[in-house]
Amino acid sequence: MTKINERVDHIAQAAEVILSEAKGLTRLAASLNETFNEAVELLLKAKGKIAVTGMGKSGLVARKVAATLASTGSPAFFIHPSEASHGDLGMIDPGQDVLLAYSNSGETAELSEILEYCARFKVPVLGITTVKESYLGKHSDVVFQLPRHVEACPLGCAPTTSTTMMMALGDALALSLVTARGFTLEDFRKYHPGGKLGARLLALRDLMHTGDALPLAPPTLPMSEALVIMTSKRLGCVGVLENGALLGVITDGDLRRHMGPNLLASLTEEIMTARPITFSPDTLAAKALAVMQEKSITNAFVVNPLGEPVGIVHIHDCLNAGVA
Fold this sequence. Notes:
Layout: H1 10-31, H2 34-44, E1 50-54, H3 57-71, E2 76-78, H4 81-84, E3 98-102, H5 112-120, E4 125-129, H6 135-138, E5 142-145, H7 161-181, H8 185-191, H9 195-200, E6 216-217, H10 223-233, E7 237-242, E8 245-251, H11 252-257, H12 268-271, E9 273-274, E10 278-279, H13 285-295, E11 299-303, E12 309-314, H14 315-320
Parallel strand pairs: 1-2, 1-3, 3-4, 4-5, 6-7, 10-11
Antiparallel strand pairs: 7-8, 8-9, 11-12
Helix pairs in contact: 1-7, 2-7, 3-7
């Protein structure tokens, strides 16, 4: 059994590891050159998908990078280099796909057959390695050379700084493709419908009440009748329309401010708050919730470009959907 060294300052060592990896990332950022642009262009030209591969720790990085690419508008998948020669090479479509290969040394033996397949069938290869003159480097159409580094491992063996740089470079490639493809937040939401992230990406069109649920009234309607609409719709407000557009809104607060013997005989246009806060259907629910909380309002109408109400959202709709 290995003897435990009780004299080690674990916090100091942890800080040293993190700073060592941070130094690697700084060197990586400084090493960016025209080759990075070539790498992005190579991936952009893929008519099909991006096959991402790597062995060992590099393979684990490759899996994550493939997942990031796929979730941000660049269809991608991970292919295990050892399984590739046992039938998985059929996953790569010549003339359509490109290969993104990771190897710190560039001499990973398991990559040989997948690289030979790509050479034979003219599948473009983007190689990520520390050694440009390596086997991977020589079999790549574009080679991005990672800067020389020292692993953060105290033994200098375990892939640490190298895999951190690989991961960061993969993120940089994926997010550069996001910009190049014009990938939008709405596109991102399609791929992330579940969980807390999915809730944060909901748009008001996904939560708003529509149709007959909308509490609406003309500007000359007596408040005695407007209150009936307000009560029956159970949303705590009434929207006042003029020529189909939202002119104002009447809330519980407006009723309290105008409470008196003449309230029921008053017209809606006399009681309403003009130019109320509204949102478009594409507004993120998280953004709308923040505004409603800041302005201390419990609901808001959703309008189209003509100012016509197409929905209404209550603050509880956002909270119940897990937006907060």
